[in-house]
Write a structure and sequence with these properties.
Elements: E1 2-7, H1 16-31, E2 36-41, H2 52-58, H3 67-72, H4 74-85, E3 88-94, H5 102-111, E4 136-143, H6 161-169, E5 174-184, H7 192-215, H8 220-229
Helix pairs in contact: 1-7
Length: 230
């Protein structure tokens, strides 16, 4: 199986979301050492923002694009290819201003693309997805300075990270029931509540990795690729 790890923290060191990602991936590989892991670090290497030239290239049929238009879409093409090959998408991110960092939003904008990952069908209430994007699972690993974002919590109405990711997940080939979230809270407080949240989240990330790793069989696409390779 193939894991795609998206790290969105701008910090190389002392990043709690990266710490969660390390715990999850390490536990996964301990159980499935032959699986592949790709990392796209959008927190350090920011995806390009969408521009007028990008939009024009996106809506130009592939066989009519200029070399310059193909270059504009190069990042998007590479990121979509990674996504298409993945079975598990792991997004490790801080929560900034109650939502996702700009760099992570830019990655979503690059991979959710007309005529690559979805198409328009004005007779339907939802847009058809690419057949390459199906059957995936998504793991969201987050860290925040505040707390109580869960349903019923003090800041439930201020929580825009998980709902946004869940909304976009469909366009990554992930169904609503296949999104899993592990969160660290209280970072700005630095007290026992934060320490308990950190340790609890690391344990939960490892437990989730174990549960998903032992439950998974290769995606049908991966089985076909292996069959072709053999």
């Amino acid at each position: 199986m193939n894991l795609l790890l998206i790290n969105a923290s701008p910090r190389r060191e002392r990043s709690l979301s990266r710490q969660l990602a390390t715990a999850f991936v390490s536990q996964w590989l301990a159980l499935r050492p032959h699986d592949a892991v790709w990392e796209r670090d959008v927190g350090i290497n920011h995806p390009p923002l969408l521009t007028e030239a990008w939009i024009a290239a996106c809506f130009t049929p592939e066989d009519q694009r200029t070399a310059a238009q193909s270059d504009v879409l190069a990042y998007s093409d590479a990121a979509i290819d990674e996504l298409a090959r993945s079975d598990i998408v792991v997004i490790a991110t801080p929560r900034y201003n109650y939502g996702m960092p700009a760099a992570l939003k830019a990655w979503f904008d690059q991979v959710i693309r007309i005529n690559r990952t979805f198409s328009f069908d004005r007779t339907e209430t939802t847009w058809p997805l690419s057949p390459l994007l199906s059957g995936k699972k998504l793991v969201l690993l987050s860290a925040s300075g505040e707390f109580a974002f869960r349903p019923g919590g003090l800041r439930e109405r201020w929580e825009h990270l998980e709902p946004h990711v869940r909304t976009c997940a469909r366009y990554l080939g992930v169904s609503a029931n296949d999104v899993h979230h592990v969160a660290i809270e209280y970072q700005e407080f630095g007290d026992e509540r934060h320490r308990a949240s950190l340790q609890g989240a690391i344990s939960a990330a490892k437990a989730l990795a174990s549960a998903l790793a032992t439950a998974q069989s290769p995606h049908p696409r991966s089985q076909q690729e292996n069959s072709n390779a053999s």
